[in-house]
User: Fold these one by one.
Assistant:
Number 1:
Amino acid sequence: MIRKLAVVGGLVVSLSGSAFAAHPLITDDTGTQGKGKFQLELNGEVSRDKEVFDGVETRETGAELAAAFSAGIFDNVDLVIGAPWVWSRVKEDGILAGDENGAGDVSLELKWRFLNYKSFSMAVKPGLTIPSGNENRGLGNGKVSYGVAMIASQELEPFTFHVNAAYTRNEFKLDADKESNRSNIWHASAAASCEIVKDLQLVANIGVETNGSRGSHAWPAFLLGGVIYSVTEDLDLDLGIKGGLNGPEADVSYLAGIAYRF
């Protein structure tokens, strides 16, 4: 599930759905940890955006620090819990119009890889968000929201390709959020990775999703590039940069993360 924070702004995307992909990718893969194995991820993102509407220049800076814990229930089933901390600052014509930070909604998901055929695999990932963020400050929805993602992966050495199609149903507690935000969010994205040298992967990602704001019908679209370096078999470091392909998407986002498996 991928959703915009209701009031804090459109730059910071809460942890959900494909946010648990191999960071910095947004598109998820079908991989699971394996029964009795675990993974802890710490990911950070800083985004900037500038828009001019009716002669007013709006500049927004957003950031997110997110933790995700994955537990292998079976060899092909993972339970994933995520918790974000978000920041957002908005200025209109240089005057501070909003400044918020705090814990966002916690997410709970289950990834089931139900198909393996040679180098092709598919998985389904239902999930929900728990309203732990303060909806009055724009840090959460105030109600339980839910969704599901379909995931496909194909290995064609030295490349690996992934495709996602996802749906999120956002439920809002505040009437103001219901009026200004869409409840039904669709997402589609594709990603590719290639190990160029031992332990170093180049990754690329492109995607689009429903605009969460009722005030716009243009779907935000992005293009992302990055690297993943495996320090050891169980420790990965990553860096990425994501650019907006149209106005509704943040102009630029910088991503970094670490993943440890045990």
Number 2:
Amino acid sequence: MSASTAPHHTKVGPDRPQRSAGSARRAADWARRAPLLPALIFTIIVTQLPFVATIVISFMNWNSYYPQDRGFGGIDNYVSVFTNAQLREAVVNTVVLTVTVVLISLVLGMLIALLLDRRFAGRGAVRTMMIAPFLVVPIAAALLWKHALFNPNYGLLNGTINAVWKLFGSDSAPQVDWLSTAPKIAIEVSLIWQWTPFMMLILLAGLQSKPADAEEAARMDGASAFQIFRYLTFPHLRQYLELGGLLGAIYIVQNFDAVFTITAGGLGTANLPYTIYQTVFSAHDYGLASAMGVVVVIATIVIATFALRVVSSMFKQEAGR
């Protein structure tokens, strides 16, 4: 009996310290994570539960004007998002607004970053002033463009036109109503003004991380400034351009402030976020508004996934250097 139990004790004995060490490690891990549990629970309650409720409501026919007709509607709301002419126009406006603002902001941001990457007197002050538009509250920026620049009576744009006309001896300068003439361009210009500094910051950070020895070697070999930009600078900035574009798209696809403040969604400028607002507070169609909200969230998640991949690949490249 004792001979048969001896091997058993020699087998179990060494495992007990390992088990106790594993239990202690798990306890220590839980001790570190426990303070984060209230924040995690709060985040789930505040963000995930409302989103789950939104998904459920998006499959319902729920209009407060017709409470007796409330019930399960299947995918009717999602079909309406893409087949209804007004909603389809809102989807197209959202895509056009996002693509236009992101592309132009990237181009302008890259040009400004290339200029600010050079050494000159007062470069720090210029950088600070260039960042200022991005720090303005979005609703304040939209009000600034609507009243201080686009107003046909006292706006800066028409005031400038009047001053130029008077230089040539004419007092009958055209008074352009910018918001009625080009409402979509007015919104795009205000957003480009605000998002160009963001793109400039990202690209300037990319330029500052560029290896200087390769550029010096190219100059010694007789490469022109355009060739250096095309074959060295631009390939280095590719991932920073992708990151800026994706991050900008995440926010601009959800833009509500500029559309609401500048045009109130009129003249064919309503995008999906504004249409969601209008559907909830004017039409009181909670099911359709929830479906539009889910579409916007899915589009944002897709864009954010690509952004995270770009950031991850950038970190991997930096770690491999």
Number 3:
Amino acid sequence: MSVAPMIDWTDRHCRYFHRLLSRRARLYTEMITTGALLHGDVARHLRFDDAEHPVALQLGGSEPADLAACARLGEQWGYDEINLNCGCPSERVQRGAFGACLMAEPQLVADCVKAMRDALQNPERVPVTVKHRVGIDRVERYDFVRDFVGTVAEAGCTTFIVHARNAWLQGLSPKENREIPPLRYEFVHRLKRDFPSLKVVINGGLTSDAQVLEQLQGADSPQAAADQAGGGPVPLDGAMIGREAYHNPWWLASWDRLYFGEPGSAATREDIEERMVDYMLRMQAEEGLGWYGIARHMLGLRHGLPGARRWRQVWSDHRLKGEDPRQVMALAHQGVERAEHAGA
């Protein structure tokens, strides 16, 4: 189980929060472009807390030499995986000739993967993985993604994280690209059947344990049954959760028990909130950071509970930026108590 890389969301503070909820889930950085690392502030982009392990660095780029240099940096900074983005459909990413448009050039992606692996001191300990779509634009043939995976696998990539939708490079916003192209879970299962030695992780549209278990266990599903040529679903190696993990983060608190067979944490939502306040105070003392930009990542912590709306309002109130986060937490809980008392 892993939390997807999400631009503007899965920064180091978000990952620290998610790690408090699950000890085992794999966490991913936002996509970081090769240009940002080669010509920008490396420490700002790559620093992370040791508590975040296992944590993966996702790179965006299409020049093998640049990706190799950035992969080497990722290994030096202690990341557990280097992931190449071949799935982002945004116009800005397309102008840089990377992201989902790379699926049209599988040999280039293979060259990038080989260069990245060759640049690492220990490519077995720090694997190079690829996150991609099942197709681009209106190309909805299984053989397109099959050939892409086959070509890239020959370069040494053994883990493929498959967003089970096409990426439409024209006419849809990134948000629409996460919702409008139909889900094709059967393509992901066929990849696992055709490449049984590869690790295949599914991504896209998963919002509940029932859905995740259906994919991981290979249970019958309407999508797979509809694809007679695919021969039905097979067990997959993992699932990556995106926006549902961000908006409803308490879901992660059950992952260690349900998916990793380990005792779940006994921490309550209130315990997690207090630990985040401790983290905010540490960031303030060590780096001069205010709590406001950190707190935004935990606004879904009380999702679905009485008083959640008032609790979110307090933690997102910019007028309180100058207050001690402990005082903000106390105010937030006063709102929760009033809501609970009123039966809201």
